[in-house]
Design a protein that fits this description.
There is one protein chain. The chain is mostly beta strands and 436 residues long. It has a domain of 160 residues. Helices cover 4% and strands 56% of the residues. The chain is built from two helices and 30 strands. Strands 3, 6, 10, 13, 16, 20, 23, 26 and 30 form a nine-stranded antiparallel beta sheet that branches. A three-stranded antiparallel beta sheet has the order 5-8-7, with no helix packed on it. A three-stranded antiparallel beta sheet has the order 15-18-17, with no helix packed on it. Strand 21 and strand 22 form a beta hairpin. The two termini are 38 Å apart.
Length: 436
């Protein structure tokens, strides 16, 4: 089957379709990382559920870097979906500049210049012998933190920094479980109360990708306390959920799974969740929905820096409408046991972005082989996805599953190794590849 890359002309006048070769690419992640604030550079009125391309303060990412979104809602008006640009998509190994982002409003309101829209995690990667020749620019920025108080939008000025941190590759899984009942409609976006989850200090949050609920997907989560620094403990109390079919969320349903990544900022801090929970998985089979009770023991994984990219290639023609998330059949990707995945955050198709992936039937455990059959695609333009078009890229990593007790042992070993201050390590001439 032939495959194509689809992107906009530099001036946005037309879509270009260019043939590509399908192959996997291997890479290695450095343990050193940073994060980059995404800041609005224009005023814009937004409507709930209608995606907007927002002009942002230009950011520059060095060659051999990739990014993902730092979870925990950073702007209570909505969710940062992806970075985007007109013109041919840049390769990971190229230097990249962005001045636009796609923002999904969950409330009506106004974005103002200087509002913080989200924060990106920036990973340095090695591809073959290639390494970046420049670093993430350092510095501080004044931004508006945007949140609701007594039903009104509040803007609080704050100074934020391009932080550097050390990745431990130690993750703990946190089930996101509905604490209420709610009817949902296909394409709708809902803020759902969930069973409260205490998140330890010195952790960042990501999703354990591959949709865990046949009714939809968790795009982000919201804190009970409002804004908190990474080095502070926090409590998840709500989930931002998008429905892909009509149905009803029941109390106790598993909506998704978060992945808590233990990191070091200044000095490493050790703390785990250690909580066993009960939930109901919701899955579709032959057009019918099923619920099944499960018990989830506290566990997680230790990752490796080695990964690969797999291309998500559409296996069907699909008409799409702006703002209506849809499942698109893709060329099957078979995953080995003990494998985790995540979509590449930067937009790879001119009409929208992949926000998650899906396998038909009952959700599989990570320790079992899995098959990716669909991609959850978020359109930002009306149009048609054609069979053979690349709609996204999937990062694939092998992991070692561990109980909480074994995760503690691993973190203790890492804590002893990470006695130097991160700021001092960042001054080393080999940063960010000290241990590669």
């Amino acid at each position: 089957m032939k495959s194509w890359m689809v992107y906009w002309e530099e001036d946005g006048s037309r879509l270009i379709k260019e043939p590509i070769k399908i192959k996997s690419f291997k890479y290695k992640i450095s343990p050193m990382a940073a994060w980059q604030p995404i800041i609005a550079d224009e005023d814009k009125t937004v409507e709930r559920g209608k995606p907007e391309i927002v002009k942002i303060k230009k950011i520059t990412l060095p060659e051999n870097t990739m990014v993902s979104n730092l979870k925990l809602l950073r702007n209570e008006l909505g969710v940062l979906i992806t970075l985007c640009k007109f013109g041919k998509p840049c390769l990971v190994e190229e230097r990249k500049e962005f001045d636009k982002a796609v923002f999904l409003p969950i409330h009506d309101g106004d974005i103002q210049k200087g509002d913080l829209l989200g924060v990106l995690k920036v990973y340095f990667v090695e591809i073959g012998d290639l390494k970046p020749t420049e670093k993430i620019p350092e510095g501080e920025e004044w931004v508006n933190l945007v949140y609701f108080k007594d039903g009104k939008i509040i803007r609080e000025e704050a100074k934020i920094k391009n932080y550097k941190y050390i990745q431990t590759f130690v993750y703990e899984y946190v089930p996101i479980i509905a604490a209420t009942e709610l009817g949902v409609k296909k394409g709708g976006i809902y803020t759902i109360d969930v069973e409260e989850i205490r998140i330890p200090s010195n952790t960042i949050l990501d999703s354990l990708y591959i949709m865990r609920n046949a009714l939809g997907d968790v795009l982000d989560v919201k804190l009970k306390e409002g804004f908190r620094k990474v080095e502070e403990p926090k409590t998840i109390s709500k989930a931002i959920f998008v429905a892909v079919r009509d149905g009803r969320i029941e109390k106790g349903d598993l909506l998704g799974v978060a992945s808590v990544h233990h990191v070091a900022l200044k000095k490493f801090a050790l703390e785990l969740l250690k909580k066993e929970v009960k939930a109901k998985i919701v899955y579709a089979d032959n057009g019918n929905l099923y619920r099944e009770p499960i018990e989830i023991a506290p566990y997680g994984h230790e990752g490796t820096p080695n990964g690969k990219w797999e291309l998500l290639i559409a296996e069907e023609d699909k008409t799409i409408k702006k703002g209506e998330l849809t499942l698109i059949k893709v060329k099957d990707i078979t995953l080995d046991p003990k494998t985790v995945v995540s979509p590449l955050f930067i937009m790879r198709h001119g009409l929208g972005a992949v926000v998650d992936v899906y396998g038909t039937g009952k959700p599989r455990r990570i320790e079992d082989p899995q098959k990716i059959t669909h991609a959850l695609f978020y359109p930002i333009f009306d149009g048609v996805i054609k069979r053979g078009e690349m709609i996204g890229v999937l990062k694939v990593h092998s992991v070692e599953l561990k109980t909480s007790e074994r995760l503690v042992e691993t973190l203790n070993k890492i804590a002893r190794a990470l006695s130097p201050d991160v700021e001092e390590l960042a001054k080393h001439p080999e940063w960010p590849y000290l241990w590669s």
